Amino acid sequence: MRWLYHVLNADSHTAGERYDPPSLASEGFIHASYRDAVAESARLYFAGRSVRVLQIDPRRLDVPVVEASTPRGPMPHIHGSIPRDAIRAVLELADVAGAPDHIELFSQLLGLQFVREPPDGPCIRLDVLPHHKNSNSVVHGSVIHALLDTVMGFTCKVELAASVVTVEISVRFLAPVFDGTLTSRARVLRAGKRIIFLDADVRRESELVAVAQGTFARLTK
Length: 221
Fold this sequence. Notes:
Layout: E1 4-9, E2 18-19, H1 22-27, E3 30-31, H2 38-45, E4 51-56, E5 65-70, E6 73-78, E7 82-83, E8 87-92, H3 106-110, E9 113-115, E10 123-127, H4 141-160, E11 164-173, E12 181-191, E13 195-204, E14 207-218
Antiparallel strand pairs: 1-4, 2-7, 3-6, 4-8, 5-6, 9-10, 10-12, 11-14, 12-13, 13-14
């Protein structure tokens, strides 16, 4: 799975619940590119104009994406308007080369959003999506477990400059989650030369939905 990018005039209107440029009405789809084709798309179709680039998460689209064969290689066409929450960033053209191409890291597959310096320390957020849920329409326990595991490792990285591996995690689930945004934070309890102990929690707004204690080992080469 790959990120999708859409080039548009810098003054184009993107506010509202859904983005539907004129090409959707005239051609039946929205032109998009994969990362490495964005610069050429801008050169061919927006020469001399100031542009911006939308970074689009295909997991959040509720319309089909059809990959068309073109002389320039495969080009994704989005057959419908784009939900606002599928637009993950608005980039300058020069910044696209450093943006991601493939959605391949585990954290990216889950959709974890890393925040290094909120007022009360590093945290991770997760917007609940349909693929996070089990057959009962509740967020799967493994998703929350992964969120807790990741935030504890992330906290070790940010606060201790330590790369770690998980030794053990104990999780208690306190309430089911059906929707919304989850926020997870961790706290270092003790940091030894080799072993680090933490606790962590997950909240949906102010509601505490899960807690955990974890043991992590410093990673050495």
